[in-house]
Amino acid sequence: MRRGMMGSLSGSLASLGAATPYAMAAKMAFPGRTVIAFIGDGAMQMNGLNVMITISN
């Protein structure tokens, strides 16, 4: 990360699917900034429907 950039990790580093709501909240808090989330296949299975609903709206 470069100076001025921010990052976030889940509290116990074992929370499956935490990146999706973190990324959505970051985009809502800072709409003009680019948000990047690294999400694995297990997390997408847990949160995939939420993402599809968000995109469709």
Automatic annotation (TrEMBL):
Database matches in InterPro entries: POXB-like (IPR047211), THDP-binding (IPR029061), TPP-bd_CS (IPR000399), TPP_enzyme_TPP-bd (IPR011766)
SUPFAM superfamilies referenced in this protein's UniProt entry, alphabetically: Thiamin diphosphate-binding fold (THDP-binding) (SSF52518)
One Pfam match: TPP_enzyme_C
Span of the signal peptide: 1-25
One GO process term, biological-process aspect: small molecule metabolic process
GO molecular function, one term: catalytic activity
Xref: PROSITE patterns: TPP_ENZYMES
Domain Thiamine pyrophosphate enzyme TPP-binding stretches: 7-55
Bilayer-crossing regions: none
Signal recorded as keyword: yes
Keyword annotations of the record: Signal, Thiamine pyrophosphate
Protein name, entry field: Acetolactate synthase large subunit
Biological source species: Acidisphaera rubrifaciens HS-AP3
